[in-house]
Amino acid sequence: xxxxxxxxxxxxxxxxxxxxxxxxxxxxxxxxxxxxxxxxxxxxxxxxxxxxxxxxxxxxxxxxxxxxxxxxxxxxxxxxxxxxxxxxxxxxxxxxxxxxxxxxxxxxxxxxxx
Amino acid sequence: xxxxxxxxxxxxxxxxxxxxxxxxxxxxxxxxxxxxxxxxxxxxxxxxxxxxxxxxxxxxxxxxxxxxxxxxxxxxxxxxxxxxxxxxxxxxxxxxxxxxxxxxxxx
Lengths: 114, 107
Prior knowledge:
The structure holds 2 protein chains of 2 kinds.
Chain A: E1 3-6, E2 10-12, E3 18-25, E4 34-39, E5 45-52, E6 57-60, E7 68-73, E8 78-83, E9 92-98, E10 103-104, E11 108-112
Parallel strand pairs in A: 2-11
Antiparallel strand pairs in A: 1-3, 3-8, 4-5, 4-9, 5-6, 7-8, 9-10, 9-11
Chain B: E1 4-7, E2 10-13, E3 19-25, E4 33-38, E5 45-49, E6 53-54, E7 62-67, E8 70-75, E9 84-90, E10 97-98, E11 102-106
Parallel strand pairs in B: 2-11
Antiparallel strand pairs in B: 1-3, 3-8, 4-5, 4-9, 5-6, 7-8, 9-10, 9-11
């Protein structure tokens, strides 16, 4: 069964950075795009970007350029999302997902607060 | 970017009724639309892919239709467990975009 296990909740200070992880099992991440999606409290889904782990190429929604960087480590079958210069606007649940996306992780809550 | 507009924002139906969700794209996207269900505090779950293709493990009461710019997700006979937010998403072009969602309430 395809599973995506995301890292735990983060409490970070404004201006700091954070790196979230998404560990895949029962499939090889080289075989599909890995996506990251943002969801603020009581809001809809926002697509951040995706990486093709087979060649490392990535695409982003322009609004997240400079804010988010997606990487992947095929040796550990894990994708990552790094967020920089965090503000209260970045407080949200971040999901990783694979394929269409067809399968989703459980989400990681990032709270930006002093 | 392709804008997806979902309507209405909230749907309220009685158990056993048929309900339809609308998703309209700002340009022709063929059948590159997918539907997701998100229950409270849960992760999104893929219900329908490519406008009308069924997904293994999803109840048969869920179906999708449409092409071009207008798409519909239908639930044939609503059950209480269907209380959730429903989103459409396009995979025709980058960046991928989601609709704003429709909340399903049960009367």
